[in-house]
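During data preparation, a discrete fold description was generated, and the record follows.
___
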Amino acid sequence: MKPHGQYKVTLEGSVVHVFPEGGFNEEGIQEMHEHVLLVAPKNKQWALFEHPKDLAGLTPEALKELIVSYKRFSKQNCKVIALEVCTTWKDVIINQLSSNLDIPFYLSSDSNELDKLIRPYLSD
């Protein structure tokens, strides 16, 4: 199937920021997260900071792929994940991630709060 969803990926220091918009299917998450790995630092610890807010949605298959990608990132020096999400998605994501991730993850609608929470995990 063709990837659905639009995104922008940027690197600020050791933090990979992802700005997704629209409805994402499994292939859309795969494509976006391949781009994350192209941008992510190769030989140092990094953080993933995704900013879907209330601008992006996920199919059930995309949510499963999100977990697969996060596990993959944890094996490639990603030390923490932050998700700037609206209240609607917060509970759904917490339920899926809490038992499936072996690195810390934080969810909030406050990007400044999230930035403060992830900084201690980074060495720069």
